[in-house]
Amino acid sequence: MTATLERAQAARELVREFASEYPFEPHFLGVDGGDLHYIDEGPRDGEVLLFLHGNPTWSFLWRNLVRELSKRYRCIAPDHIGCGLSDKPQAWGYRLEQHVANVERLVAHLGLARITLVVHDWGGAIGFGLAARHPELVARAVAMNTAAFTGLKAPLRIRACRIPLFGTVAVRGLNAFARAAAFMATERGLAPLAKKGLLAPYGSWQNRIATLRFVEDIPLSAEHPSHTTLLGIERGLEGLRDRPLCLIWGERDWCFTPEFRREWERRFPSAESHKVDDAGHWVTEDAPSQVLEWIRSFLSRHPLRP
Q: How many domains does the structure of the chain reveal?
Protein backbone atom coordinates (compact mmCIF):
# COMPACT_ATOMS: atom_id res chain seq x y z
CA MET A 1 0.00 0.00 0.00
CA THR A 2 2.82 2.39 0.87
CA ALA A 3 4.50 1.77 -2.49
CA THR A 4 1.20 2.43 -4.28
CA LEU A 5 0.70 5.69 -2.42
CA GLU A 6 4.25 6.76 -3.18
CA ARG A 7 3.76 5.94 -6.85
CA ALA A 8 0.55 7.95 -6.99
CA GLN A 9 2.23 10.88 -5.27
CA ALA A 10 5.11 10.79 -7.76
CA ALA A 11 2.58 10.85 -10.60
CA ARG A 12 0.81 13.86 -9.11
CA GLU A 13 4.14 15.64 -8.77
CA LEU A 14 5.01 15.06 -12.42
CA VAL A 15 1.74 16.60 -13.61
CA ARG A 16 1.69 19.39 -11.01
CA GLU A 17 2.66 22.17 -13.45
CA PHE A 18 -0.19 21.30 -15.80
CA ALA A 19 -2.67 19.76 -13.34
CA SER A 20 -5.35 22.17 -14.53
CA GLU A 21 -5.16 20.38 -17.89
CA TYR A 22 -4.91 16.88 -16.42
CA PRO A 23 -6.86 16.78 -13.13
CA PHE A 24 -7.23 13.01 -12.95
CA GLU A 25 -6.53 10.53 -10.18
CA PRO A 26 -3.69 8.11 -11.06
CA HIS A 27 -4.19 4.34 -10.96
CA PHE A 28 -1.64 1.57 -11.52
CA LEU A 29 -1.77 -2.09 -12.53
CA GLY A 30 1.10 -4.54 -12.70
CA VAL A 31 1.42 -5.90 -16.24
CA ASP A 32 4.13 -7.36 -18.45
CA GLY A 33 6.90 -4.77 -18.33
CA GLY A 34 6.04 -3.11 -15.03
CA ASP A 35 3.35 -0.83 -13.63
CA LEU A 36 0.83 0.44 -16.13
CA HIS A 37 -0.68 3.84 -15.32
CA TYR A 38 -4.28 4.57 -16.25
CA ILE A 39 -7.05 7.01 -15.46
CA ASP A 40 -10.57 5.84 -14.68
CA GLU A 41 -13.07 8.68 -14.63
CA GLY A 42 -16.86 8.84 -14.59
CA PRO A 43 -19.65 6.64 -13.23
CA ARG A 44 -18.60 3.05 -12.58
CA ASP A 45 -21.88 1.79 -13.98
CA GLY A 46 -21.65 3.97 -17.08
CA GLU A 47 -20.95 2.77 -20.59
CA VAL A 48 -17.22 2.18 -21.02
CA LEU A 49 -15.07 4.27 -23.32
CA LEU A 50 -11.53 2.89 -23.62
CA PHE A 51 -9.07 5.49 -24.93
CA LEU A 52 -5.81 4.21 -26.44
CA HIS A 53 -3.06 6.62 -27.46
CA GLY A 54 -0.12 6.27 -29.83
CA ASN A 55 3.44 7.54 -30.14
CA PRO A 56 4.80 9.86 -28.73
CA THR A 57 1.74 10.76 -26.68
CA TRP A 58 0.08 9.40 -23.52
CA SER A 59 -3.32 9.61 -21.82
CA PHE A 60 -2.84 13.38 -21.64
CA LEU A 61 -3.92 13.43 -25.31
CA TRP A 62 -7.45 12.47 -24.21
CA ARG A 63 -7.81 15.03 -21.40
CA ASN A 64 -10.39 17.27 -23.11
CA LEU A 65 -12.59 14.36 -24.15
CA VAL A 66 -12.34 12.63 -20.77
CA ARG A 67 -13.23 15.78 -18.82
CA GLU A 68 -16.49 16.14 -20.76
CA LEU A 69 -17.48 12.58 -21.60
CA SER A 70 -16.84 11.30 -18.06
CA LYS A 71 -19.90 13.26 -16.96
CA ARG A 72 -21.92 10.44 -18.48
CA TYR A 73 -19.54 7.64 -19.50
CA ARG A 74 -16.87 5.67 -17.69
CA CYS A 75 -13.67 6.84 -19.38
CA ILE A 76 -10.54 4.70 -19.06
CA ALA A 77 -7.24 5.75 -20.62
CA PRO A 78 -4.00 3.83 -19.99
CA ASP A 79 -0.45 4.88 -20.74
CA HIS A 80 1.25 2.06 -22.64
CA ILE A 81 4.37 0.71 -20.97
CA GLY A 82 7.21 3.14 -21.70
CA CYS A 83 4.79 6.06 -22.03
CA GLY A 84 3.30 8.73 -19.82
CA LEU A 85 3.29 7.81 -16.14
CA SER A 86 3.80 4.08 -16.72
CA ASP A 87 7.07 2.27 -16.07
CA LYS A 88 9.75 2.61 -18.74
CA PRO A 89 11.78 -0.61 -18.66
CA GLN A 90 14.97 -0.51 -20.71
CA ALA A 91 15.15 -4.20 -21.64
CA TRP A 92 11.48 -4.92 -22.44
CA GLY A 93 10.46 -5.93 -25.96
CA TYR A 94 8.02 -3.12 -26.80
CA ARG A 95 6.30 -5.24 -29.43
CA LEU A 96 2.73 -4.77 -30.63
CA GLU A 97 1.81 -8.18 -29.24
CA GLN A 98 2.94 -7.13 -25.76
CA HIS A 99 1.01 -3.86 -25.80
CA VAL A 100 -2.17 -5.67 -26.86
CA ALA A 101 -1.67 -8.22 -24.08
CA ASN A 102 -1.30 -5.43 -21.51
CA VAL A 103 -4.58 -3.86 -22.59
CA GLU A 104 -6.17 -7.31 -22.33
CA ARG A 105 -4.85 -7.51 -18.77
CA LEU A 106 -6.30 -4.10 -17.89
CA VAL A 107 -9.70 -4.96 -19.38
CA ALA A 108 -9.81 -8.24 -17.45
CA HIS A 109 -8.68 -6.57 -14.23
CA LEU A 110 -11.44 -3.96 -14.45
CA GLY A 111 -14.04 -6.45 -15.68
CA LEU A 112 -14.90 -4.34 -18.70
CA ALA A 113 -17.50 -5.32 -21.29
CA ARG A 114 -19.45 -3.65 -24.11
CA ILE A 115 -16.47 -1.40 -24.70
CA THR A 116 -16.36 1.54 -27.05
CA LEU A 117 -12.83 1.92 -28.37
CA VAL A 118 -11.49 5.43 -28.94
CA VAL A 119 -8.13 5.09 -30.68
CA HIS A 120 -5.41 7.20 -32.27
CA ASP A 121 -2.11 6.40 -33.99
CA TRP A 122 -0.64 3.15 -32.55
CA GLY A 123 -3.73 2.91 -30.36
CA GLY A 124 -5.60 1.70 -33.44
CA ALA A 125 -3.52 -1.44 -33.89
CA ILE A 126 -3.49 -2.05 -30.14
CA GLY A 127 -7.22 -1.47 -29.67
CA PHE A 128 -8.30 -3.48 -32.68
CA GLY A 129 -5.85 -6.13 -31.52
CA LEU A 130 -7.99 -6.41 -28.41
CA ALA A 131 -11.14 -6.46 -30.56
CA ALA A 132 -9.76 -9.15 -32.88
CA ARG A 133 -9.05 -11.40 -29.90
CA HIS A 134 -12.23 -10.58 -28.00
CA PRO A 135 -14.86 -9.32 -30.45
CA GLU A 136 -17.57 -9.98 -27.88
CA LEU A 137 -16.11 -7.24 -25.66
CA VAL A 138 -16.18 -4.43 -28.21
CA ALA A 139 -19.47 -2.78 -29.16
CA ARG A 140 -18.42 0.36 -31.04
CA ALA A 141 -15.28 2.21 -32.10
CA VAL A 142 -14.04 5.70 -32.85
CA ALA A 143 -10.82 5.81 -34.89
CA MET A 144 -8.72 8.92 -35.49
CA ASN A 145 -5.68 9.10 -37.75
CA THR A 146 -4.66 5.50 -37.24
CA ALA A 147 -4.34 2.11 -38.91
CA ALA A 148 -4.82 -1.54 -37.97
CA PHE A 149 -3.79 -3.21 -41.21
CA THR A 150 -0.68 -4.09 -43.20
CA GLY A 151 0.64 -2.25 -46.22
CA LEU A 152 1.77 0.69 -44.11
CA LYS A 153 3.74 3.43 -45.81
CA ALA A 154 6.01 5.29 -43.42
CA PRO A 155 7.15 8.72 -44.62
CA LEU A 156 10.85 9.51 -44.86
CA ARG A 157 10.93 11.45 -41.61
CA ILE A 158 9.64 8.36 -39.77
CA ARG A 159 11.97 5.95 -41.55
CA ALA A 160 14.94 8.19 -40.76
CA CYS A 161 14.32 7.56 -37.07
CA ARG A 162 14.87 3.83 -37.72
CA ILE A 163 18.40 4.32 -39.06
CA PRO A 164 20.81 2.57 -36.65
CA LEU A 165 22.72 4.94 -34.39
CA PHE A 166 21.29 8.05 -36.05
CA GLY A 167 17.76 7.19 -34.93
CA THR A 168 18.89 6.34 -31.42
CA VAL A 169 20.80 9.59 -31.00
CA ALA A 170 18.02 11.69 -32.56
CA VAL A 171 15.08 10.13 -30.74
CA ARG A 172 16.58 9.25 -27.36
CA GLY A 173 19.41 11.74 -27.16
CA LEU A 174 17.84 14.85 -28.69
CA ASN A 175 14.17 13.96 -28.16
CA ALA A 176 13.74 14.85 -31.83
CA PHE A 177 10.67 12.69 -32.40
CA ALA A 178 8.57 14.09 -29.56
CA ARG A 179 9.80 17.66 -30.00
CA ALA A 180 9.12 17.56 -33.73
CA ALA A 181 5.65 16.12 -33.11
CA ALA A 182 4.85 19.09 -30.85
CA PHE A 183 4.72 21.32 -33.92
CA MET A 184 4.52 18.91 -36.88
CA ALA A 185 1.49 16.94 -35.59
CA THR A 186 -0.71 20.02 -35.26
CA GLU A 187 -1.78 22.65 -37.75
CA ARG A 188 -3.11 25.20 -35.27
CA GLY A 189 -0.31 25.03 -32.71
CA LEU A 190 -0.27 23.92 -29.08
CA ALA A 191 -1.03 26.05 -26.06
CA PRO A 192 1.97 26.23 -23.67
CA LEU A 193 0.41 23.93 -21.07
CA ALA A 194 -0.60 21.41 -23.74
CA LYS A 195 2.95 21.30 -25.08
CA LYS A 196 4.36 20.98 -21.57
CA GLY A 197 1.99 18.14 -20.77
CA LEU A 198 2.64 16.19 -23.94
CA LEU A 199 6.42 16.37 -23.53
CA ALA A 200 6.67 16.04 -19.73
CA PRO A 201 7.10 12.23 -19.48
CA TYR A 202 9.92 12.17 -22.04
CA GLY A 203 12.58 14.31 -20.40
CA SER A 204 15.53 11.92 -20.41
CA TRP A 205 17.32 9.26 -22.48
CA GLN A 206 15.80 6.49 -20.35
CA ASN A 207 12.30 7.92 -20.55
CA ARG A 208 12.35 8.05 -24.37
CA ILE A 209 12.80 4.31 -24.80
CA ALA A 210 9.25 3.67 -26.04
CA THR A 211 9.35 6.64 -28.41
CA LEU A 212 12.13 4.88 -30.30
CA ARG A 213 10.82 1.34 -29.88
CA PHE A 214 7.40 2.22 -31.32
CA VAL A 215 9.09 3.61 -34.44
CA GLU A 216 11.26 0.51 -34.72
CA ASP A 217 8.21 -1.74 -34.31
CA ILE A 218 6.43 -0.48 -37.42
CA PRO A 219 6.18 -3.67 -39.54
CA LEU A 220 7.14 -2.30 -42.95
CA SER A 221 7.95 -5.76 -44.32
CA ALA A 222 6.75 -9.33 -43.90
CA GLU A 223 10.04 -10.18 -42.18
CA HIS A 224 9.43 -7.77 -39.29
CA PRO A 225 8.73 -9.47 -35.91
CA SER A 226 5.39 -7.63 -35.52
CA HIS A 227 4.13 -8.28 -39.05
CA THR A 228 2.38 -11.52 -38.11
CA THR A 229 0.67 -9.80 -35.17
CA LEU A 230 -0.57 -6.95 -37.34
CA LEU A 231 -1.70 -9.36 -40.06
CA GLY A 232 -3.81 -11.19 -37.48
CA ILE A 233 -5.35 -7.91 -36.36
CA GLU A 234 -6.10 -7.00 -39.97
CA ARG A 235 -7.83 -10.32 -40.56
CA GLY A 236 -9.87 -9.77 -37.43
CA LEU A 237 -11.35 -6.56 -38.84
CA GLU A 238 -13.62 -8.59 -41.10
CA GLY A 239 -15.47 -9.95 -38.06
CA LEU A 240 -16.04 -6.43 -36.73
CA ARG A 241 -17.76 -4.93 -39.78
CA ASP A 242 -21.13 -5.03 -38.04
CA ARG A 243 -19.89 -2.76 -35.24
CA PRO A 244 -20.66 0.94 -35.56
CA LEU A 245 -17.49 2.82 -36.50
CA CYS A 246 -16.87 6.56 -36.44
CA LEU A 247 -13.86 7.93 -38.32
CA ILE A 248 -12.52 11.37 -37.39
CA TRP A 249 -9.61 12.53 -39.49
CA GLY A 250 -7.19 15.41 -39.51
CA GLU A 251 -6.78 15.70 -43.27
CA ARG A 252 -3.39 17.41 -43.11
CA ASP A 253 -1.75 14.51 -41.33
CA TRP A 254 1.51 13.76 -43.17
CA CYS A 255 1.81 10.33 -41.53
CA PHE A 256 -1.69 8.81 -41.39
CA THR A 257 -2.76 10.57 -44.55
CA PRO A 258 -6.30 10.62 -45.98
CA GLU A 259 -5.30 7.45 -47.83
CA PHE A 260 -5.54 5.61 -44.52
CA ARG A 261 -9.00 7.06 -43.89
CA ARG A 262 -10.13 5.84 -47.30
CA GLU A 263 -8.81 2.37 -46.49
CA TRP A 264 -10.93 2.32 -43.31
CA GLU A 265 -13.94 3.42 -45.38
CA ARG A 266 -13.29 0.63 -47.87
CA ARG A 267 -13.14 -1.98 -45.12
CA PHE A 268 -16.11 -0.54 -43.19
CA PRO A 269 -18.58 0.75 -45.81
CA SER A 270 -21.15 1.66 -43.16
CA ALA A 271 -18.74 3.78 -41.13
CA GLU A 272 -19.52 7.44 -40.64
CA SER A 273 -16.63 9.64 -41.61
CA HIS A 274 -15.74 13.16 -40.47
CA LYS A 275 -12.93 15.20 -41.96
CA VAL A 276 -11.24 18.26 -40.49
CA ASP A 277 -9.61 19.86 -43.49
CA ASP A 278 -7.32 22.16 -41.53
CA ALA A 279 -6.29 19.71 -38.78
CA GLY A 280 -3.15 17.60 -38.53
CA HIS A 281 -2.27 14.29 -36.91
CA TRP A 282 -3.31 15.40 -33.42
CA VAL A 283 -6.86 16.14 -34.46
CA THR A 284 -7.93 16.21 -30.80
CA GLU A 285 -5.60 19.19 -30.30
CA ASP A 286 -6.53 21.02 -33.50
CA ALA A 287 -10.30 20.54 -33.30
CA PRO A 288 -11.28 19.45 -29.75
CA SER A 289 -14.83 20.82 -29.86
CA GLN A 290 -15.65 19.23 -33.20
CA VAL A 291 -14.22 15.88 -32.12
CA LEU A 292 -16.21 15.96 -28.89
CA GLU A 293 -19.51 16.73 -30.59
CA TRP A 294 -19.02 14.07 -33.26
CA ILE A 295 -18.30 11.45 -30.60
CA ARG A 296 -21.29 12.49 -28.50
CA SER A 297 -23.54 12.31 -31.53
CA PHE A 298 -22.15 8.95 -32.61
CA LEU A 299 -22.67 7.41 -29.17
CA SER A 300 -26.23 8.70 -28.89
CA ARG A 301 -27.18 7.45 -32.37
CA HIS A 302 -25.74 4.00 -31.73
CA PRO A 303 -27.01 3.05 -28.26
CA LEU A 304 -25.85 -0.20 -26.77
CA ARG A 305 -28.34 -3.03 -26.84
CA PRO A 306 -29.74 -4.04 -23.42
A: 1
